[in-house]
Amino acid sequence: MVLVLSPSSNFVPTFMWLLRREQRPVDCLDYTVDLCDYDVPYHVRFAIDNDVRCGQCYDVSVSSSGVILEKRTDLLQRAEVRVCAFDIETPKLPSKFPDAEYDLIMMISYMVDGQGYLIINRECLGQRHRGLGVYSKTRFQECFKVTNVKNEVELLQQWFAHMQEVKPGIFVTYNGDYFDWPFIESRAGYHGIKMSDAVTKAKLGYDPLEVNPEDMVRFAKEKPQMMASYSVSDAVATYYLYMTYVHPFIFSLATIIPMWPDEVLRKGSGTLCEMLLMVQAYKANVICPSKHQSDPEKFYKFYFD
């Protein structure tokens, strides 16, 4: 942070005199002309100052002076990070949204390294599945390995154990921040399990199956094969959408923007442009000015008789 003070030479003695004589604090902002770089996150500042980017490869070594990062200029192709795309299916009461307090997870479908998996909770689906193939008119033809478990606890334990085994670097979901992840975490907590221990048609030419939410519970009992196909079709769509369009985009930007990949994906275009300008300002030894703040809007009071 750069603190720009008023050029008045009386600032320091006046400040000390006030503290000594009146014993009351002084607001330093009254003597401050501007604040520069004060809102830059630490990891962004580190990446800029040390010319480190998440989308590039480095040789890492440790010495008595600390950690040393040496950029591998010979490695231009992006690193192959293991990706897991997953989707959960849950029952629900009629005309209600699924509630993690009492609704169970019926199944989890996911893809890792192009291989599909489906875990079925037989508390909700009575018919036993041996194997399942997902077929479409495009190149995305995947077979899923099916595991039948007797209850939700075993479903969660099976999925957590597999995730600990394959250790994905990236998880991909549809609306996972607001539904899938919180729902899984809530259901895991209900069973005393802590997780810390543990666009499609237009882009791909692939139509995932669609099921009316009001029919899911009935189909789970009457048409379990349809529900299984519906679940895995979402996993296929999520996996290939990410690998085809999102993954290359994130890694390309992460080679020039001083942020970690999740921020590159979620930040707006204005923030990303600001990060690029900060990189160039550092190279040119220019202090970045503080963000422009508009004057607060004024509202008029209306009085009615």
From TrEMBL:
Enzyme Commission numbers on file: 2.7.7.7
GO-annotated cellular components: epsilon DNA polymerase complex
Residue runs in coiled coils: none
The reaction(s) this protein catalyses: DNA(n) + a 2'-deoxyribonucleoside 5'-triphosphate = DNA(n+1) + diphosphate
Keywords: 4Fe-4S, DNA replication, DNA-binding, DNA-directed DNA polymerase, Iron, Iron-sulfur, Metal-binding, Nucleotidyltransferase, Nucleus, Transferase, Zinc, Zinc-finger
Top-level EC class: transferase
Swiss-Prot/TrEMBL cofactor(s): [4Fe-4S] cluster
UniProt subcellular location: Nucleus
Segments forming domain DNA-directed DNA polymerase family B exonuclease: 37-199
Domain of life from the UniProt record: Eukaryota
Principal location: nucleus
Biological process terms in GO annotation: base-excision repair, gap-filling; DNA replication proofreading; leading strand elongation; mitotic cell cycle; nucleotide-excision repair, DNA gap filling
Keyword Zinc-finger: yes
Database matches in Pfam families: DNA_pol_B_exo1 (PF03104)
Gene Ontology terms for molecular function: 4 iron, 4 sulfur cluster binding; DNA binding; DNA-directed DNA polymerase activity; single-stranded DNA 3'-5' DNA exonuclease activity; zinc ion binding
Entry annotated with the keyword Manganese: no
Family indicated by similarity: Belongs to the DNA polymerase type-B family.
Function: DNA polymerase II participates in chromosomal DNA replication.
Protein name according to UniProt: DNA polymerase epsilon catalytic subunit
Organism field: Corchorus capsularis
